[in-house]
Amino acid sequence: MSSLKVPMNRSVKQMTAAEMKELVSSAVRETLRAELTAVHVDSRGYLIFPDEAAYATFLETQPDKLPSEVRASFLDPQGLRVHYSDYEPTPQKARALHAAQQEGTVAAETVWEQLRKLGVE
């Protein structure tokens, strides 16, 4: 981050591009910092938690409700709102998922080699 200080008594016309960029960046950082550090209620009445741990702790206080029944979500590291799913895999699907996780992966170079044979660059 630059240490550029923008004088508040200047009009937008008098600001340089760098000063304008710093002003906007600073405003966005302040807004995100305020939203990410406290639980707040959005315009639809949902509780928005700053992180997954706080959200999970709150859900534990609602044992008789599914996540979809609780009007709450949390902000992931990218700033997106996320909530837990009600979906629980069947035993058959759980076994299939576990088996897929145990399978080895293909090296990227092998994939690129096959793509080059097909003419993809």
Structural topology:
Elements: H1 17-36, E1 40-41, E2 47-49, H2 52-60, E3 72-75, E4 81-82, H3 91-102, H4 108-117
Parallel strand pairs: 2-3
Antiparallel strand pairs: 1-2, 3-4
Label the overall shape. Answer: flat
DSSP strand content: 5-15%
Query: Termini distance?
Result: 37 Å
Look at the structure and give the mean pLDDT.
Answer: 84
Tally of helical segments = 4
What order do the strands of the largest sheet run in, or round the barrel if closed? 1-2-3-4
Order of secondary-structure elements: HEEHEEHH
Structural class by sheet pairing and helices: alpha+beta
Radius of gyration, rounded? Answer: 24 Å
Provide the low-confidence segments as ranges: none
Describe this structure in words.
With 121 residues, this protein is α+β, with helices and mostly antiparallel strands. The protein contains four helices and four strands, in the order αββαββαα. The protein has a domain at 1-35. The mean pLDDT is 84. A four-stranded mixed β-sheet has the order 1-2-3-4.
Please give a handful of descriptors for the protein shown.
121 residues, 4 strands, 42% helix, 9% strand
In short:
Helices cover 42% and strands 9% of the residues. With 121 residues, it is of the alpha+beta class. The protein has a domain at 1-35.
